[in-house]
Amino acid sequence: MEKFQSDVVIAGIGQTHVGERWEASLRKLAAEAILSALKDSNGLRPGVIYVGNMLAGSASRQANLGALIAEDVGLNGVEGVTVEAADASGGAALRMAYMAVLSGAVDVALAVGVEKATDIIGSDFEAFITQMLDADFEAAQGLTPISLANLLFYRYLHEYSAAHTSFAGFPEIAHANAASNPYAMFQSPLREGVYQAQAAKDEQALTMYDIAPFADGAAAVLVTRGDKLPGGFSHPPVRVIGSSLVTDSLSIHDRHTPLVWDAARISIERACRGAGIMPKDLDFFEVHDATSLHAAISLEMAGFASIGEGWTLAKPEMIGLNGQIPVATFGGLKARGHPLGATGLYQAVEAVLQLRGEAGMNQVPDARLGLIQNLGGMASTAVAHVLSR
Amino acid sequence: MEKFQSDVVIAGIGQTHVGERWEASLRKLAAEAILSALKDSNGLRPGVIYVGNMLAGSASRQANLGALIAEDVGLNGVEGVTVEAADASGGAALRMAYMAVLSGAVDVALAVGVEKATDIIGSDFEAFITQMLDADFEAAQGLTPISLANLLFYRYLHEYSAAHTSFAGFPEIAHANAASNPYAMFQSPLREGVYQAQAAKDEQALTMYDIAPFADGAAAVLVTRGDKLPGGFSHPPVRVIGSSLVTDSLSIHDRHTPLVWDAARISIERACRGAGIMPKDLDFFEVHDATSLHAAISLEMAGFASIGEGWTLAKPEMIGLNGQIPVATFGGLKARGHPLGATGLYQAVEAVLQLRGEAGMNQVPDARLGLIQNLGGMASTAVAHVLSR
Questions:
Q1: Number of H helices, E strands in chain A
Q2: Which of helix, strand or coil describes residue A141?
Q3: Where are the alpha helices (DSSP H) in chain A?
Q4: Which of A61, A77, A244 faces B135 most closely, judged by CB atoms?
Q5: In whole angstroms, what is the distance from residue B89 CA to residue B250 CA?
Q6: B263 — contact with chain A (CB < 8 Å)?
Q7: Which residue, A90, A106, A39, A84, is CA-closest to A351?
Q8: Is pTM, for the whole model, over 0.95?
């Protein structure tokens, strides 16, 4: 929670194509995103690199990514560490960059999220992904993030008398937006009726159309102060006016109710309060739609719907690009893809494109204020940032 | 590199016994250190927790330690993330805490290092530890941190015409200091002559007497501003007057010479410059003695010896508690033990004890200025802090 509005800006963005990037190594993905961001900034040189990553130790047997990536992009010697908070690692890295610039210790900070998730074979993959849950009390019982989300979805439908088919708008709008995002994993709309048909068959369980694909990818942003922008910087600078990171218990059983995600709610409240705005002032919301359930609950936690009514927003007039509160404007986790520790920085890059007015066919009309929220585990970590044109 | 001296202080310390802690889980170790630090501070409550850890994902299948540990110690909801830079993770977490307080975003930051390294079986252990090297260019050739250190040691002896037996003072002094440290893994002196006998046999290779034991443990410090100290705080506050984190290539073959560790050198130069002091002003140096070679090179990089002459300091009158520049005052990595991501915070806790004058039998007389340096991999990451009474 910040006590003052700052002059911190994002002045450089880069991203790679999301997907099964078997041809690209971890360092190659990171370098591609970083070099794009450096070029986009027209001459900034970071004094520190924060790497958002969840799986490199487990899946690539590689620690110390800060040093690895700094050297690989020709920034030899600069400060660099990995920041990890499960699939909120990217958002957490952005927050570190923000705080580093605020502290005055550096003028320019680079936050890069990178993940190689698809080279892992079979049961190892479930074990690696399940690191985001509580190893002693959840994973030990056989839960995985998807099976846990399924249990919660079942409960949600029961508690709030919602029908599975009512969630169709979340993936349908995400896929429609991803169709014009050249970096997205799935650049095609969902065919009409496929969600409904599958949801009618699996009335009480999330289907593949509800669940974001884990993927490879990297995204990067350069954070600096407004007075440090390079001379030839040709984009409208985008200010970071609110920032918050809040934790909750890892285990769902330790919460007062499983369908109210306090960290998601509080992080947005604090980021908005820091920014001096109300959620209703926002022009769009990059939501952490790891599943359709995540989308519904996140909209409730942000205050765009009452508890138990998030699913009623799953319509183009509400969350489409021209709707009341557009979400997943470049496809979200569901259709752009979910490269775990990189996801939070894809959200940041996409929000910057919106606020610069450079979002092309994905542009939210007259976007001036955007919220991005990145969740780790079942919202055990929640990171929220408010960005402003 | 800071531009100004700050009023950042360490006002709470805690540590656990280092060793093979098979009876204690990751969260239990962290909680023990944190609760000690909270008690020691007499009432501080952190707004953020930075967890220094290297192996939890690989070895314990547990990510998101920030959220996990926050809840486990009753700090539900506070900001929390993992900071990773191989075995410099603890030092990196301390630096994050320092910058968070500097930024004004929080009044109190907690840095905790925790590692569970000894539950791992057989060849998995080498693979996990080797994550600190370059997976693609070093580990893929069969190198491990110890085998690489051995190659460098062989080269060092050749280049500088040093004898293996000349390094005896490093472990002997470390063990002598650990004998009166109740938290140390090895609380006994080395028997006279054992190092020499083994070194005479293995003239050109590091022996078990040269290599710090990987271990379990946790250590924590509370960082705040001088004006936020609680009323009843009964210790002399210790100021953080210099802080720096510098990277170098992961692969040794990418450096201009393998025996000059630029990151180690530059991080100390910057931390001392930020503090407005020269290394000769320091009263002690908590060195990252992962091997005897590390101790020798670190002393050279800090400027206490010329290049190639660090080994000449391995004598009580130079580095003993009453020597010119005491090192490893509570046993160092070699005898206190090396709990990887926790090591940098053990160094901080030990330095605070020295500067408070609470080091008991390990007290460096009239200690006013201390340097701590934590290295990640073969000094691919180097973190240096200058602390002052």
A1: 13, 9
A2: helix
A3: 26-41, 56-60, 65-72, 89-103, 122-129, 145-160, 169-178, 194-201, 262-275, 292-301, 316-319, 332-336, 343-356
A4: A61
A5: 15
A6: yes
A7: A90
A8: yes
Q: Please report the residues numbered 62 through 91 in chain B whose beta carbons come closer than 8 angstroms to any beta carbon of chain A.
A: 62-68, 70-71, 76-86, 88-89
Tell me the pLDDT tens digit for each residue of A1-30. 344 456 999 999 999 999 999 999 999 999
Enter the ipTM.
0.97
Q: Chain centroid to CA A105: how far?
A: 27
Chain B interface, best mutation among A79, A110, A246, by max B CB count within 10 A: A79
Q: In sequence order, what DSSP letters do the residues of B269-313 get, joined into one string?
A: HHHHHHHT--GGG-SEEE---SBHHHHHHHHHHTTSS-TT-GGGG
Tell me how far apart the alpha carbons of residues B270 and B272 are, in angstroms, rounded to a whole number: 5
Q: How many other C-beta atoms lie within 10 A of the C-beta of residue A4?
A: 9
CB contact under 8 Å between B85 and A92, yes or no, is no
- Give the nearest partner residue to B67 out of A61, A66, A250, using CB atoms: A250
Would you call B44 helix, strand, or coil by DSSP? coil
- Judging by DSSP bridges, how do beta strands B284-286 and B369-376 pair with one another? parallel
A81 and B79: CB-CB below 8 Å? no
**Residue in A closest to B61 by C-alpha:** A131
| Token digits of residue B187 | 């609380």
Which CA distances in Å does B383 have to A9, B271, B275, B288, B373?
Answer: 27, 9, 14, 10, 6
Task: Place B125 in a pLDDT band, splitting at 50, 70 and 90.
Answer: confident
